[in-house]
Protein backbone atom coordinates (compact mmCIF):
# COMPACT_ATOMS: atom_id res chain seq x y z
CA UNK A 1 0.00 0.00 0.00
CA UNK A 2 2.95 2.34 0.63
CA UNK A 3 3.97 1.79 -2.98
CA UNK A 4 0.43 2.70 -4.07
CA UNK A 5 0.12 -0.40 -6.24
CA UNK A 6 -3.13 -1.11 -4.47
CA UNK A 7 -5.37 0.49 -1.84
CA UNK A 8 -8.39 2.76 -1.72
CA UNK A 9 -9.08 6.48 -1.71
CA UNK A 10 -12.43 7.70 -0.37
CA UNK A 11 -13.50 11.28 -1.09
CA UNK A 12 -16.64 13.21 -0.16
CA UNK A 13 -17.76 16.02 -2.48
CA UNK A 14 -20.78 18.14 -3.28
CA UNK A 15 -22.05 18.80 -6.78
CA UNK A 16 -19.76 21.73 -7.54
CA UNK A 17 -16.53 20.78 -5.75
CA UNK A 18 -16.01 17.68 -7.91
CA UNK A 19 -15.21 20.02 -10.83
CA UNK A 20 -12.16 21.30 -8.96
CA UNK A 21 -10.85 17.77 -8.41
CA UNK A 22 -11.24 16.26 -11.89
CA UNK A 23 -7.76 17.16 -13.23
CA UNK A 24 -6.05 15.80 -10.11
CA UNK A 25 -8.22 12.67 -10.15
CA UNK A 26 -7.25 12.02 -13.77
CA UNK A 27 -3.56 12.40 -12.95
CA UNK A 28 -3.87 10.20 -9.85
CA UNK A 29 -5.62 7.49 -11.87
CA UNK A 30 -2.91 7.62 -14.53
CA UNK A 31 -0.10 7.30 -11.95
CA UNK A 32 -1.77 4.73 -9.67
CA UNK A 33 -4.24 2.60 -11.65
CA UNK A 34 -4.26 -0.10 -8.96
CA UNK A 35 -5.81 2.20 -6.33
CA UNK A 36 -9.59 2.13 -6.11
CA UNK A 37 -10.98 5.67 -6.01
CA UNK A 38 -14.44 6.14 -4.53
CA UNK A 39 -16.03 9.59 -4.84
CA UNK A 40 -19.17 10.02 -2.76
CA UNK A 41 -21.58 12.83 -3.57
CA UNK A 42 -23.28 14.30 -0.52
CA UNK A 43 -24.38 17.57 1.05
CA UNK A 44 -21.51 19.79 2.22
CA UNK A 45 -22.87 19.94 5.76
CA UNK A 46 -22.63 16.15 6.08
CA UNK A 47 -19.06 15.76 4.83
CA UNK A 48 -17.18 16.83 8.01
CA UNK A 49 -19.13 14.30 10.08
CA UNK A 50 -18.32 11.51 7.62
CA UNK A 51 -14.60 12.41 7.75
CA UNK A 52 -14.62 12.37 11.56
CA UNK A 53 -16.25 8.95 11.58
CA UNK A 54 -13.61 7.47 9.22
CA UNK A 55 -16.10 6.88 6.43
CA UNK A 56 -14.16 9.33 4.24
CA UNK A 57 -10.43 9.95 3.92
CA UNK A 58 -10.93 13.51 2.73
CA UNK A 59 -13.84 15.83 2.06
CA UNK A 60 -14.08 18.87 -0.24
CA UNK A 61 -16.30 21.68 1.06
CA UNK A 62 -16.65 25.46 0.63
CA UNK A 63 -16.39 26.43 4.31
CA UNK A 64 -14.03 25.91 7.26
CA UNK A 65 -15.64 23.48 9.73
CA UNK A 66 -15.91 24.60 13.35
CA UNK A 67 -15.07 21.21 14.84
CA UNK A 68 -11.61 21.38 16.47
CA UNK A 69 -10.98 17.75 15.51
CA UNK A 70 -10.89 18.72 11.84
CA UNK A 71 -8.38 20.71 9.84
CA UNK A 72 -9.07 22.51 6.58
CA UNK A 73 -6.61 23.05 3.73
CA UNK A 74 -7.54 25.50 0.98
CA UNK A 75 -7.19 23.90 -2.44
CA UNK A 76 -8.94 26.38 -4.74
CA UNK A 77 -10.17 29.95 -5.00
CA UNK A 78 -13.22 30.36 -7.18
CA UNK A 79 -15.95 32.91 -7.86
CA UNK A 80 -19.50 33.11 -9.10
CA UNK A 81 -19.87 34.18 -12.71
CA UNK A 82 -22.60 34.91 -15.24
CA UNK A 83 -22.73 32.66 -18.31
CA UNK A 84 -24.92 33.02 -21.40
CA UNK A 85 -25.47 31.30 -24.73
CA UNK A 86 -22.91 32.51 -27.36
CA UNK A 87 -25.75 34.05 -29.41
CA UNK A 88 -27.43 35.73 -26.43
CA UNK A 89 -27.64 39.55 -26.57
CA UNK A 90 -25.45 39.80 -23.48
CA UNK A 91 -22.71 37.73 -25.14
CA UNK A 92 -21.67 40.85 -27.07
CA UNK A 93 -20.89 42.68 -23.83
CA UNK A 94 -17.71 42.28 -21.81
CA UNK A 95 -19.22 43.71 -18.63
CA UNK A 96 -22.69 44.65 -17.41
CA UNK A 97 -24.38 46.22 -14.39
CA UNK A 98 -26.97 44.37 -12.35
CA UNK A 99 -29.42 47.27 -12.36
CA UNK A 100 -31.20 47.62 -15.65
CA UNK A 101 -28.68 45.57 -17.62
CA UNK A 102 -31.13 42.90 -18.66
CA UNK A 103 -34.59 41.51 -18.07
CA UNK A 104 -33.84 38.01 -19.27
CA UNK A 105 -34.61 34.70 -17.66
CA UNK A 106 -32.05 33.99 -14.93
CA UNK A 107 -31.44 30.48 -13.59
CA UNK A 108 -29.32 30.83 -10.47
CA UNK A 109 -27.82 27.77 -8.91
CA UNK A 110 -30.28 26.45 -6.38
CA UNK A 111 -30.03 23.02 -4.78
CA UNK A 112 -26.32 22.68 -4.08
CA UNK A 113 -25.48 25.87 -2.19
CA UNK A 114 -28.44 27.82 -0.76
CA UNK A 115 -26.25 30.54 0.91
CA UNK A 116 -24.83 31.66 -2.45
CA UNK A 117 -28.26 31.54 -4.05
CA UNK A 118 -29.54 33.80 -1.26
CA UNK A 119 -26.65 36.22 -1.75
CA UNK A 120 -27.41 36.51 -5.48
CA UNK A 121 -31.05 37.27 -4.73
CA UNK A 122 -29.99 39.88 -2.14
CA UNK A 123 -27.60 41.46 -4.67
CA UNK A 124 -30.44 42.00 -7.15
CA UNK A 125 -32.68 43.35 -4.38
CA UNK A 126 -30.03 45.89 -3.29
CA UNK A 127 -29.78 47.08 -6.88
CA UNK A 128 -33.57 47.29 -7.17
CA UNK A 129 -33.60 44.85 -10.05
CA UNK A 130 -36.31 42.23 -10.36
CA UNK A 131 -34.95 38.71 -10.65
CA UNK A 132 -37.01 36.94 -13.29
CA UNK A 133 -36.92 33.21 -12.51
CA UNK A 134 -39.71 31.45 -14.41
CA UNK A 135 -37.96 28.12 -13.89
CA UNK A 136 -35.37 26.86 -11.39
CA UNK A 137 -33.28 23.79 -12.14
CA UNK A 138 -32.12 21.26 -9.51
CA UNK A 139 -28.51 20.67 -10.61
CA UNK A 140 -25.65 22.62 -12.14
CA UNK A 141 -25.52 20.25 -15.10
CA UNK A 142 -29.20 20.87 -15.91
CA UNK A 143 -28.66 24.63 -15.54
CA UNK A 144 -25.71 24.48 -17.93
CA UNK A 145 -27.70 22.46 -20.46
CA UNK A 146 -30.57 24.95 -20.35
CA UNK A 147 -28.18 27.84 -20.99
CA UNK A 148 -26.65 25.95 -23.93
CA UNK A 149 -30.16 25.45 -25.28
CA UNK A 150 -30.63 29.23 -25.26
CA UNK A 151 -33.33 29.08 -22.59
CA UNK A 152 -31.82 31.61 -20.18
CA UNK A 153 -28.67 32.77 -18.43
CA UNK A 154 -27.14 31.59 -15.17
CA UNK A 155 -24.91 32.60 -12.28
CA UNK A 156 -22.81 29.60 -11.27
CA UNK A 157 -19.38 28.78 -9.80
CA UNK A 158 -16.80 29.49 -12.49
CA UNK A 159 -14.99 26.19 -11.97
CA UNK A 160 -18.16 24.40 -13.10
CA UNK A 161 -18.22 26.11 -16.51
CA UNK A 162 -14.52 26.58 -17.36
CA UNK A 163 -14.64 23.73 -19.90
CA UNK A 164 -17.67 25.17 -21.69
CA UNK A 165 -16.20 28.69 -21.72
CA UNK A 166 -12.87 27.46 -23.13
CA UNK A 167 -14.65 25.55 -25.92
CA UNK A 168 -16.96 28.44 -26.80
CA UNK A 169 -20.14 26.63 -25.78
CA UNK A 170 -20.92 29.40 -23.28
CA UNK A 171 -19.88 33.02 -22.97
CA UNK A 172 -18.79 34.53 -19.67
CA UNK A 173 -19.99 38.06 -18.96
CA UNK A 174 -18.58 40.07 -16.06
CA UNK A 175 -21.11 41.66 -13.70
CA UNK A 176 -19.63 44.73 -11.97
CA UNK A 177 -21.44 44.21 -8.68
CA UNK A 178 -20.99 40.44 -8.60
CA UNK A 179 -18.07 39.97 -6.23
CA UNK A 180 -18.64 36.63 -4.52
CA UNK A 181 -15.41 34.68 -4.04
CA UNK A 182 -15.67 31.01 -3.14
CA UNK A 183 -13.02 28.89 -1.48
CA UNK A 184 -12.81 25.11 -1.64
CA UNK A 185 -11.18 23.31 1.27
CA UNK A 186 -10.12 19.74 1.89
CA UNK A 187 -11.03 18.63 5.41
CA UNK A 188 -9.24 15.83 7.23
CA UNK A 189 -8.90 14.56 10.80
CA UNK A 190 -6.56 16.81 12.79
CA UNK A 191 -3.48 15.03 14.07
CA UNK A 192 -4.29 11.80 12.23
CA UNK A 193 -1.94 10.45 9.59
CA UNK A 194 -3.56 10.36 6.19
CA UNK A 195 -3.68 7.03 4.35
CA UNK A 196 -0.95 6.77 1.70
CA UNK A 197 -3.43 7.16 -1.17
CA UNK A 198 -4.95 10.29 0.39
CA UNK A 199 -1.51 11.82 0.99
CA UNK A 200 -0.52 11.15 -2.61
CA UNK A 201 -3.74 12.69 -3.89
CA UNK A 202 -3.12 15.82 -1.82
CA UNK A 203 0.39 16.05 -3.25
CA UNK A 204 -0.92 15.81 -6.82
CA UNK A 205 -3.63 18.35 -6.07
CA UNK A 206 -1.05 20.87 -4.82
CA UNK A 207 0.92 20.37 -8.04
CA UNK A 208 -2.20 20.94 -10.13
Structural features, described:
- It is built from 6 helices and 8 strands; from the N terminus they run βαβαβββααβαββα.
- The longest helix is centred in the N-terminal third of the chain and has 14 residues, at 18-31.
- Strands 1, 2, 3, 4, 5, 6, 7 and 8 form an 8-stranded mixed sheet that branches.
- The protein has 208 residues and is of the alpha/beta class.
- Helix 1 (18-31) crosses helix 6.
- The protein starts with 7 loop residues before the first strand and ends with a helix.
- It has helices at residues 18-31, 47-52, 114-126, 140-148, 162-166, 196-207; strands at 8-13, 36-41, 58-61, 70-84, 95-96, 154-157, 171-175, 181-189.
> What average pLDDT do the residues reach?
86
What structural category characterises the helix and strand content?
alpha/beta
The fraction of residues assigned to DSSP E strands is 15-25%
Rounded to the nearest angstrom, the distance between the terminal CA atoms is: 23 Å
List SSEs in N-to-C order: EHEHEEEHHEHEEH
Overall 3D shape? elongated
Low-confidence stretches: 107-112
Rg of Cα set: 19 Å
Identify the notable features of this structure and list them briefly.
208 residues; alpha/beta; 28% helix; eight-stranded mixed sheet
What is the fold's blueprint, element by element?
Blueprint: E1 8-13, H1 18-31, E2 36-41, H2 47-52, E3 58-61, E4 70-84, E5 95-96, H3 114-126, H4 140-148, E6 154-157, H5 162-166, E7 171-175, E8 181-189, H6 196-207
Amino acid sequence: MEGLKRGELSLGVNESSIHALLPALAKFREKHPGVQVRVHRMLSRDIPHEVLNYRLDLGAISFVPRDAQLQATEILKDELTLVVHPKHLLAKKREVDVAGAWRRKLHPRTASNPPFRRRVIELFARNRTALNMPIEMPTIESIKRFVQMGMGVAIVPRMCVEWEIEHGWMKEVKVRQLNMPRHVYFVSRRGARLPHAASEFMRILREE
